[in-house]
Amino acid sequence: MAELSDNSIPTFHLRGTSAIRGPLMVLAVCAVGAVGYLARDFLVPTAGAIVLALMLTPLATALERRARLPNTLAALASVLLLALIAAALLAVAIPSISSWAEQVPYLVRTLENKLEGLRKSLAFMQEVTERVEKAAQAATANQASPPAEKVVVSNRSLLSALASTTPFVVLQIGYAAVLAFMLLAHRNAHRRQILRIGTTFGTRVQLARVMRDINDRVGHYLFTLAAIYFGVAVLSATTLAGLGFPNAIMWGIVIGLASFVPFIGPPMVIGLVAFVGLLIFDDWPRIVGAPAMLAVIHIAESQFVTPALVSRRCALNTVAVFATIAFLGWAWGAIGAIVAVPLLILISTIAAHLPSLRWLEVLLSDDRPPPLRMAVKPPLASVRGRPLPKKVRPERRQPRRRLVAAK
Questions:
Q1: Whose CA, among 26, 50, 106, 263, lies 20 to 30 Å from 246?
Q2: For the chain, first and last CA: distance in Å?
Q3: CA–CA gap between residue 49 and residue 86 (Å, rounded)
C-alpha cells in the first residue's frame, strides 16, 4: 500500500519477502552455475587445492604433534609425500597406457573376429541394406551430379595435442600444489583470523564449531577414504594379476581413483574391464572372473568397510550426490566429479550452522537421523574450564527436604 510522506513522495511498504525470495534464490543459483562454468580453468585447481589441503590436514597435524615439526615443515612434508605417491602412480601407469595404445589395432582385429558370428546372424539385415543402397544409387544417378567439393582433413597427431595441452596442465597442477601447501602451512593463523571476525563470544564459539566440524567431517572423511581406496587399489591389482589380466597395476590404480566418484566410477571401470577381458581372453572363466571379483571388492568396500569406518555424519542424500557429480563432471571434467562429494560435505557442514541455510542442510543430508552421541556436540576445548555466563549457567538443584510427620 502506498502512503504520502511530507515531501509528497509515495512510499511503498512490502510486507514479507516470500514473494521475491524464491526468484532471487533461483537467480543466485543460476549465477553461481554460470560463473563456475565460465571460470572453470581457475576454479578447478582451486577446488582441488582446497580438497587436498583438507585431506592432508590429519597427516600434517600428526607430524606436528608426534614428530615435533613446525607448521611449515609439516605442510611441506605432507605435500611432498602426496607428490611422490602421484609420481610413482604415473610412472607405473604411463608405460601401461602406451602399451595399450600400441595394441589397439590388434584388439580391434580380435573384436572383429569375435563378432564375426554375430555379423553372420545379421546377414539378412545386411542384404536388405544393400538393396536399399542400390535403389538410392540408381535414383541419384539420373540426377545431375553437383561439382565435387574439396575436403581437407587436418591430421593432428596425439603427440602434438599433448604438447599443446601439457604446459597448461602442469601450470594448474603447480598452482594447486602451492595453494594446498599455503593453506596447510597457515591453517592455524587462518583460524585465528576467522575467529576475530566475530564480535561476541557466542559468534566466536559458533565459528569455532564450524571450523571444527569442517576439519572433522571433510578432513578425516577424505583421509579415511584415501586409505580405504588405496587398499581397494592394491587388492584389485593383486586379484587381476592372479587371474593373468595384463597391466593389473594400472587397472588397480584406475579403480582406486574411480572409487572417489560414487555410483558412477567403479561400475564404469568394472564394465571396461569386462570389455577388455572379452577381447584378450578366450575362456569364459577368466572373462567373467575379472569383473566379478572387482564387483565383489566394490560391494564389500561400499556396503561394509566404508560405513564401518566413516562417520554417519557424512551421510548425504543419494539424489543430491548423483546430481552434483553429474553437474560438476559436465562443467569441470573428471576433477569436478572427484571433488563433488567433498565440496558437497563442506557446503552441508557450513549450512548446518547457519539458521538461514538450515533448509539446505536438511535437503543435502540423509533422511536417517544420526545416532544421539553424534547429534550432541561436545564442548570446545577453548571453552572448557571457563565459567559459563550467568544467562546460561545451570541452576543448582536444591536438596530435597524431607517432611517429618509430627506426632
A1: 263
A2: 76
A3: 15
How far apart CA 327 and CA 321 sit, in angstroms, is 10
DSSP label of 276: H
Alpha-carbon distance of 351 to 362, in angstroms, equals 9
Nearest Cα to Cα of residue 236 among 173, 158, 290: 290
Q: Are 194 and 214 in contact (CB under 8 A)?
A: no
**Contact yes or no for 255/269 (Cβ under 8 A):** yes
Sign of the CA dihedral running 105, 283, 233, 267: positive
Distances (CA, A) of 395 to 72, 201, 376, 388, 390: 46, 21, 21, 11, 10
User: Which residue from 286, 141, 293 is spatially nearest to 232, judged by alpha carbons?
Assistant: 293
Q: What is the spatial distance between Cα 31 and Cα 306, in angstroms, rounded to a whole number?
A: 35
Contacts for 2 with CB less than 8 Å, ≥ 6 apart? 10, 11, 12
Say if residue 286 is exposed, middle or buried (CB neighbours under 10 Å; 0-12, 13-18, 19+). Answer: middle
C-alpha cell at 288: 567373467
C-alpha cell at 90: 604415473
CB of 178 closer than 8 Å to CB of 48: no
Cβ neighbours of residue 273 closer than 8 Å, sequence gap 6 or more:
240, 245, 251, 290, 291, 294
Contact call for residues 363 and 320 (beta carbons, < 8 A) = yes
Written as tens digits, the pLDDT of the chain (407 aa) is: 444 445 555 554 445 455 677 777 778 878 888 888 888 889 889 998 998 898 899 899 999 988 888 989 999 999 999 999 888 888 887 777 777 666 666 666 666 666 665 566 555 566 656 665 666 566 555 554 444 454 444 444 444 554 566 778 888 889 999 999 999 999 888 888 888 887 888 888 888 888 888 887 777 888 888 889 999 999 999 999 998 888 888 899 899 989 988 888 899 999 999 988 888 887 888 889 999 999 999 999 988 888 888 755 567 888 888 888 888 888 888 888 888 888 888 888 888 888 878 888 888 877 555 444 444 444 554 444 455 455 444 445 544 444 444 44
How big, in percent rounded to 5, are the helix, strand and coil portions of the chain? 75, 0, 25
